[in-house]
Amino acid sequence: MYKREQYEIINERLREPRKFIQVVMGPRQVGKTTVVRQVLKDLQSVPYLFFSADDVPATQKSWIYDCWDAARAQMRIEGSKEAVLIIDEIQKLKGWSEVVKKEWDEDTFNGIDLKVVLLGSSRVMLEKGLADSLMGRFETIKMAHWSYPEMKESFGIRLSQYIYFGGYPGAASLMGDQERWSTYVKDSIINATIDKDILNDTAIAKPALLRQTFELGASYSGKMVSLTKMLGSLQDAGNTTTLSGYLNLLRDSGLLAGLQKFSVDLSRQRASIPKFQVFNNALRNVYCGLTFDEAVRNPKGWGRMVESAVGAHLVNNVPIGGYEVYYWREGDLEVDYVLKKNDRIIAIEVKSGSETTNAGLEEIRRKYSPYASFIVGKGGVDIEKFLSLPPAKLFE
């Protein structure tokens, strides 16, 4: 079975003496549970207990005490000097961080070598709990959506399949049955994330509007659309402030981002029209209205999918790469993506058709003297090579 790069990190940390709680975070269906189970299997001699809070009532934080007591009891029964306790989706329980702090500190005081791994798909709720109670007691391990090289190596998919079907390992075997693939993406990823990670954790006045915002924004992935214009297309319209807040929630859940225009003037940047961008092209293409075969024969539609795939690759790697993603536009000139890390910027234009004019790149070079600027696609860096490159390496 394929092992993601986080396998080595988790494996190494669980073999070290007990020092920190390990927190594995990332969107749904990216393999957090799988990679932890792979590590536990290879540890062999170390006993462990695995619990999931997915279906535990949010107010039942006493459940965490039960998990801890069960792990300690197992250590006593088996005469083990060490063990590993894994709790999945712990952020769903209200007040979870205070309980974890209490139990972790108690084990530390009593010299109990119980190592702890927490997993979660709601990054905001996890980080809030960690910041509130567990400062100095944890390390994070961030996981992103699967990259093209990972999907290619694991499932043998072609570039065109990755551009259309995206990078969800659980959906890879369903590509031959698009209706089944679409149902899986909508039910197991989109609906599960909205229902369990957003609506359960956040007071949302208009849940239907949140769903509509995602569906419309995902279908527009790679395009700039004003929130005011977007309101006119929504049935349960609120206001632009509401939509902006929903976009932040969708971004933090690894579904959809609203990229801002790159500008040295931060007020203009914040007031800019967002460019919608999914984190995984599957999230866009379940709403595209084209089958895979129809898409690859449609030059215009395919070009939009390619641009969205490049954008997904960029935003997906933000937590790992530590950079920011923008777009740039001035008058009729635009650049698809602008990356910023510290004082370096990188300008990227995506070309998948016959058009070869690069006036936007020329202008941004003149105005900002970027660290690097280039085309991805026709007349530039090969798309397959670009999707195989960790974006953070562009800054080296």
Helices, strands, pairings?
Layout: H1 6-15, E1 21-25, H2 32-43, E2 48-52, H3 62-78, E3 82-88, H4 96-110, E4 113-120, H5 123-133, E5 138-142, H6 148-155, H7 159-165, H8 178-199, H9 207-219, H10 227-231, H11 240-252, E6 256-259, H12 266-270, E7 275-278, H13 281-285, H14 292-296, H15 299-316, H16 318-321, E8 324-330, E9 333-341, E10 344-351, H17 359-368, E11 372-377, H18 383-387
Parallel strand pairs: 1-4, 1-5, 2-3, 3-4, 10-11
Antiparallel strand pairs: 6-7, 8-9, 9-10
Helix pairs in contact: 1-2, 3-4, 4-5, 9-11
Beta-strand portion reads 15-25%
Number of spatially distinct domains: 2
The major beta sheet can be summarized as: 5 strands, parallel
The helix/strand series, from N terminus to C terminus, equals HEHEHEHEHEHHHHHHEHEHHHHEEEHEH
Residues in helices, as a percent range: 40-55%
Mean pLDDT: 91
**Unreliably modeled segments:** none
Strand order of the largest sheet: 2-3-4-1-5
Number of beta-strand segments: 11
Helix count from the secondary structure assignment: 18
| Span between termini | 32 Å
Shape: globular
Structural class: alpha/beta
From the alpha-carbon coordinates, what is the Rg to the nearest angstrom? 22 Å
